[in-house]
Amino acid sequence: MSIIPVPRVAVIVVAAGSGTRLGAGSPKAFVGIDAHTILRHALRGVFDAPEAQVIVVAPDDRVGDATTEALGAAGGRRDLVSVVAGGATRQESVAAGLAAVWADVEIVLVHDAARALTPPDVFARVIDAVAEGSDAVIPVLPVVDTLKRVADDVVVEPVDRSVLAAAQTPQGFRRAVLDGAYRDAAADHTDDAALLQSAGTQVRTVPGDERAFKITTTADLDRARALVEPVPRAASPASPSIPRVGMGTDVHAFGGDDTLWLAGLEWPGEPGLKGHSDGDAVAHAIVDAVLAAAGLGDIGTHFGTAQPEYAGAHAAAFLARTRALAAEAGWVVGNVSVQVQANRPRFAARRVEAERVLSEALGAPVSVSATTTDGLGFTGTGDGVAAFAVAVVFPA
Ligand code: CTP
Ligand code: MG
Fold first, then answer.
1. Residue 305 resides in a domain
2. 26, 152, 192, 218 — which has fewest CB within 10 A?
3. Are residues 249 and 356 in the same domain?
4. Which ligand is nearest to the CA of 18?
5. Best mutation site among 18, 98, 190 for ligand 1 pocket (most ligand atoms within 8 Å of CB)
6. Looking at residues 337-360, what average pLDDT do you find?
7. Phi then psi for 182, rounded to 5 degrees?
8. In terms of C-beta density within 10 A (0-12 exposed, 13-18 middle, 19 or more buried), how is residue 148 classed?
9. Band of residue 307 on the pLDDT scale cut at 50, 70, 90
10. Is the pLDDT of residue 230 over 70?
């Protein structure tokens, strides 16, 4: 029973490690267990646990991917999610997550994404123990193996396992105590409980769970693969057989530093457009139209300034990601029609080329039309370009 009726809780899911010991060639959190990644499975446990702010800490160059995973797992609770870039050590990653905790949160849990199959009731036990008055709580399992202290390959002495426990996550803390310990941290610790204990805080234990084991090696990954149940699709279509349409518009002003990129093509000699990416209004209108059709928010949700890997990116990167986002939510793109309004460049000679490039990147037919506006408006005066797109998506 919680003493605080509605605990104000945040869960920091650290997923910024490289997974050296797993050696899968990509950061551990993005390795698949089944059709879904370690991170996605970890987040399923988090979202099935008592409601909390959820902060995912991802490798610097994978913030966009982590956002896709987090939004997919969040379903209707996307407003609870934020994703931040981690640091070189686990402790630095936790600190980055801690900086994103909302002001009124009182209890903070720190959880390893690598403990992907942790059941929701472990979160509940930890939250309750903190709510009942403990400053620091960790889930533990008894040690089952017979333990020996060794020097090289010689046994020095047996170790009494009854006084030992194996620590797991999520580890839960009173927010003010955790903030203080991180502010004053002088050394690097492998878990948060060790950091707090070094600062003099008493750490309590609650029962852990065998399924909360950490995926560290390929043997652990095999064990996880044998245990998983399929993840239900988060954003299932409202009606399974009915297509959905979406629209998107975008505008960019001339005055960028580089040459023009528009409709997925480079236009040498033409003045560039200003924007966080390459200013390709045609591509961005398509992205918005597809995301709207799939009910996945808009371009800012998935490609905002929080995703630095899209700074300077061209249409192909945006459209490929958009297609993947739609697929993840259970949609295939039927087709897209996009119209660009601009005095220049002249589209007629390259319209077919633009359609080919955009269609290939999106994996669906994209038709491009172009018009001028008879000298009227900002497109007529040549200050910028506007693009308007309509997309249709079908349940996969
Ligand atoms: N972690 C992190 N930032 C780091 C290092 C680790 O967020 N700089 C996270 C990992 O993503 C993981 C958890 O901390 O979820 C536990 O770390 P570990 O199992 O050691 O993962 P890795 O550091 O990725 O693996 P390895 O040590 O084998 O490289
Ligand atoms: Mg590590």
1. yes
2. 152
3. yes
4. 1
5. 18
6. 95
7. -70, -35
8. exposed
9. low
10. no
Taking each helix axis as running N to C, give the angle between helix 351-362 and helix 315-328, from 0 to 180 degrees, rounded to the nearest 10: 40
- Whether the CB of 191 sits within 6 Å of ligand 1: no
Rounded Cα–Cα distance for residues 169 and 91 (Å):
14
List pLDDT tens digits, range 147-162: 999 999 999 999 999 9
CA–centroid distance, residue 167 to ligand 2 (Å): 15
Top mutation candidate among 20, 28, 41, 57 for ligand 1, by most atoms within 8 Å of CB: 28
Residues 6+ apart with CB under 8 A from 277: 284, 303, 310, 311, 312, 313, 314, 318
Q: Do residue 210 and residue 258 come from a single domain?
A: no
29 lines ligand 1 (CB under 6 A): yes
| Ligand 1 within 6 A of CB of 169 | no
pLDDT by residue (tens digit) across 68-89? Answer: 999 989 988 888 999 999 999 9
> What's the gap in Å between 19 CA and the centre of ligand 1?
6
Total tally of structural domains belonging to the chain: 2
Q: Which of 227, 257, 281 is the last residue of a domain?
A: 227
Pairing type for strands 171-174 and 136-142 reads antiparallel
**Ligand 1 within 6 A of CB of 221:** no
For the chain, give the percent of residues with pLDDT over 70: 94
CATH at residue 345? 3.30.1330.50
For residue 121, give the CATH number of its domain: 3.90.550.10
Indicate whether 117 belongs to any domain: yes
Q: Which residue has the tokens 């959880």?
A: 111
Q: Look up the domain containing 285 and give its range.
A: 244-395
Collapse the DSSP code of 280 into the 3-class scheme (helix H, G, I; strand E, B; otherwise coil) and give the result: coil
Mean pLDDT is lowest, of 11-25, 73-87, 236-250, for 236-250
Q: Which of 12, 13, 14, 39 to mutate to test the pocket of ligand 1 (most atoms within 8 A of CB)?
A: 14
Which ligand is nearest to the Cα of residue 22, counting in written order? 1
Same domain for 249 and 324? yes
- Per-residue pLDDT band at 276 (split at 50, 70, 90): confident
